[in-house]
Design a protein that fits this description.
Elements (H helix, E strand, L loop, with lengths): L11 H8 L8 E11 L4 E14 L3 E21 L16 E22 L5 E11 L2 E13 L6 E17 L17 E20 L2 E14 L7 E4 L3 E4 L5 E14 L4 E12 L4 E12 L4 E12 L27 E13 L4 E12 L4 E12 L1
Antiparallel strand pairs: 1-2, 1-18, 2-3, 3-4, 4-5, 5-6, 6-7, 7-8, 8-9, 9-12, 10-11, 12-13, 13-14, 14-15, 15-16, 16-17, 17-18
Amino acid sequence: MQLNQKQFKLSFVTASILLASSVYAQDYVRVNYMQYDENDNRVSVQAPSIEVNKDFGVDYTLNVSLVTDAVSGATPIYVDSISGASAFNSRGDNKTPIKKNVEFTEQRTSASFSLVSRLDSRDEITVAFSKSYESDYDANTLSIDYLHWANKSKNRSYNIGASYALNNILIKDCSYNAQCGAPDSVSGASKKEISNILSTEVGVTQLIDKTSLVKASIFYSTEDGYLSNPYYNVVRYTNKIVAEVRPDKRVAYGFNLKYIKAFTSTISSKFKYKFYTDDWDITSHTIDINNYYELNSKVTLGFGIRYYTQSEAIFYSKDTNYFTDEVYASHDDRLSSFNSTTLKTSVDYKYSKSLSYNISLDKYDQSTDLSAMYTTVGFKYKF
């Protein structure tokens, strides 16, 4: 059943939500500014971004985006309670360690582009590349995706994709860590490490009826190389402070489900579920619901909720004196067992056929006592 055979007429915005998973494209420039603030002044991020999407005839679509982040805040890590030195200058003596916030600032720049090429059959090949750079981290990702239409009515499609990421990590001043080659902590010597990530995904998208569609996919990924966090420490051997150590390999897999439904000509929803598990013993579930209500021809209201829960990694512990002679050890809360809830609201205002404005506010709460606010404002210009 094709979209233009609806018994009631969907508005442009609602139809676009359904078409977003199939054949919808347009020429536009999008500019946004995002402000992110954690509680207790831990981390603050200011991130302006620009995105350009351009069709070249009916066979090619180019998308280019650029994001610049200014990040500041403090990382809670174990330090020497006597000297107050950070983990990278710890004497490793038997003084009682404490956990304190170590301040930092960072500038990150991320750029990406993708090119969609449509064959005579209207099947699509998408090639994408992204690069993210900061003073101690350089990430490069290349991906390719093939979409095959099952029939001329385009009510079903299959896709298969793969991506490869090469990450360069600069480990600064880590003389206490034998894996770093024992550089001189006074001179500030450092060591470079790399990590590789290979991911694959296979999926199917099906138009169920005139007002709804579903998409299902499975994914598999492998990581190898330096997977530890160079800024996190653990306490070992009668309060000796050393760098955390994670396995140098990780295998993960899972599946995604998405359901899009237009309930009326002005009310629509997106439902997403993701299951993830890996050989670090982390298993997670994500439920994401976004609802949209078109108040009138100019204003669209959005509201939603995202719930996330995960189990802890096998080598994680929050206890200060837990680690002794274990090979792998981490105190990083992101590897702990926790759940989080994000409440989302948004307003889109269509000023004209070509210009619209947007604002959104998200409230994030995590069971580890972390909370944050996201605010995004911007505009979209169609040309």
